[in-house]
Amino acid sequence: MRSEYLRTLVESIVTGSFAKAADNLCITQSAVSRRIKFLEDECGYPLVDRSGPLLLTEAGKVVYDRAHKMLQLEDELLRDLRGLAPRQGITFCCTPSFGLAYLPEVIKRFMRCNPDMSELKFSFDMPDKVLDGLHKGVYQVGVIEHTVDLDLSDFDTWDLPGDEVVFVSPSPLGLAEKVVPLESLMTHDLFIRKEGCCSSQLLELNMKNLGRENSEFKRVIFCDDLHMIIDAVLEGNGVAFISRSVVEKHVRDGRLRTHHVDGFVHAYRRTLILNKPAVSDPLLKNFVNGIRAVFNEK
Asked: Within this chain, do residues 257 and 286 fall inside the same structural domain, yes or no?
């Protein structure tokens, strides 16, 4: 059985839906369905009860239990193999907002100082996925944004300058700068990243604290592509709740305005995280120092 198909089954059950599994695995929902169907054909039994909330059949429970153990062994095998012959390379994961706003400059500086490095791998994911990858040894270093204290005792960490998640609107819309009533924003379409990401979770928490719901906006449009969200707002199609660092250049040139709402938590903490076994690697030290330097010069 192909491990990616087993991983699809596990992710579907863990998330509770094919749609969420598709988002997390960066494939389409139809691809998830096809993979589950392939496993069922191969096993000769239905594995998932699709009549309501996703539930495992009796055969599905057997396959799920074995799949979970097999995937754990695969992760351990890959981690052990990486440790046999360390290569001149870096595996790094960060949130999409950091990747869009800062990663190009980080890479440019690093490659200029390390032209002979053989392997450089970068991934974007949500903070919990970044931490999970660091715990499993999939990534050596990561950057996340968060609003709550996290248990990072297993890692070496550095606090980086924080970020804000703000509402943004196109200047022609005429909304006042800085603090605005929530009602003035809710008359427009709201663009936001997919459900479960940092900004959408923060928005949901803020709305709940004010006794409001996202459904009170004219429409809520979920999109996982930050570039598409920014373009939609620049074209005057609505407002967005988004990392300020991602839209900073458009704010500076006057094309976008940023807005705060009374009672909202807008601040994000940003943390640079390094696996402790990697601390002694000179190449990783250079990479970490390069990330910190980008902020020190701002």
From this structure: no
Token pair of 69 as six digits: 């153990």
Residues 174 and 256 grouped into a single domain: yes
When divided into structural domains, the chain yields a total of: 3
**How does pLDDT run across 70-108, given as a tens digit for each residue?**
888 887 776 776 566 555 678 899 998 999 899 999 988
Domain membership of residue 216 as a residue range: 163-268
Q: In this structure, what are the phi and psi dihedrals at residue 244, rounded to the nearest 5 degrees?
A: -65, -35
Whether residues 205 and 237 share a domain: the answer is yes
pLDDT, the chain, mean: 87
